[in-house]
Amino acid sequence: MSTDKVEKLQVKFTKVAEGLLGSEGPVFNKDGEFIMVAPEMEEDGQSAGQILKINLQNGQPTVWCRPKFHDVGGIPAGCQCDQENNIWVADMRHGILKVTPQGQVTQMVREQDGQVMQGCNDCAFDYQGNLYVTAPAGPIAPQPYQRSMQEPFGSLYCLKRDGNIVKVDTGFFFSNGVAVSADNKMLIVAETKPRKLWAYDIIGDGQLTNKRLWATLPHVNEGTGPDGMDFDCQGNLIVANWGEWSLEVFDSTGKHIYTIDCPFDKPSNVHFQPNSNRVYVTEHHFHGLWHFDWKHQGQKQY
Hints:
Blueprint: E1 7-9, E2 14-17, E3 24-28, E4 34-38, E5 42-43, E6 46-47, E7 50-54, E8 61-65, E9 68-69, E10 72-73, E11 76-81, E12 87-91, E13 95-99, E14 105-107, E15 111-112, E16 115-116, E17 122-125, E18 131-135, E19 154-159, E20 165-172, E21 175-180, E22 186-191, E23 196-204, E24 207-216, E25 225-231, E26 237-242, E27 246-250, E28 256-261, E29 267-272, E30 278-283, E31 289-293
Parallel strand pairs: 1-28
Antiparallel strand pairs: 2-31, 3-4, 4-7, 5-6, 7-8, 9-10, 11-12, 12-13, 13-14, 15-16, 17-18, 18-19, 19-20, 21-22, 22-23, 23-24, 25-26, 26-27, 27-28, 29-30, 30-31
């Protein structure tokens, strides 16, 4: 996609915290607490990812929980909050997790149609309470850890509001960020390796149709591509362009309208503070958390 007429924006980024290894999964709970993950934490050379609460006034992290199942530590990556104030976590080793407000972690799915669940990276609720989850990893622990960067086995699941899990698409080179439009009619999924954003029409709970290429991210460097994303209230989608020192903004039709220059080269995810135009950004350069103020407020979460 040509970027000749794309406007470059300079915004003021403020650093909140750094040194949070693999910084990802920014989300606010219903109490206004800020939660994110540090998936690259290790103990004795093994995965030991952490789910954190961050004091936004001083940047201090508190370890809320450390997912571990079958004696394997987690690699938590993406988070969302439901209307009961539970945090749902996409974990690359353990699939879909639910964390209660008290910090109790439950692994929600082990199998789908008799097949071992894949490891997950990001998630987004639609407005009916269905959770769409990208799954770029191989079978969950205790199976060996695999990622779909060299072979296209990345998938997309939906954990439906009735509790059933369905695999709605597969064949991705690393399915990654995911977002639902405000009218609950369109789902966007990032495929990182080919730098593509795919759109689907939502026609029912876990039912998608009309898959189409919605946008392709610009690139200068190799090994870059779309990561996490979030809609503003005008239907613009802000996408982390991992490896490119930028966030990309697309209008509701998929037209690339802005590039936001970042003071870091590996933005991993973005999330609007509820009822605000403040955007929180995680990144893998400083393994940090930053914020900036956008032109519009974020899309309503519920």
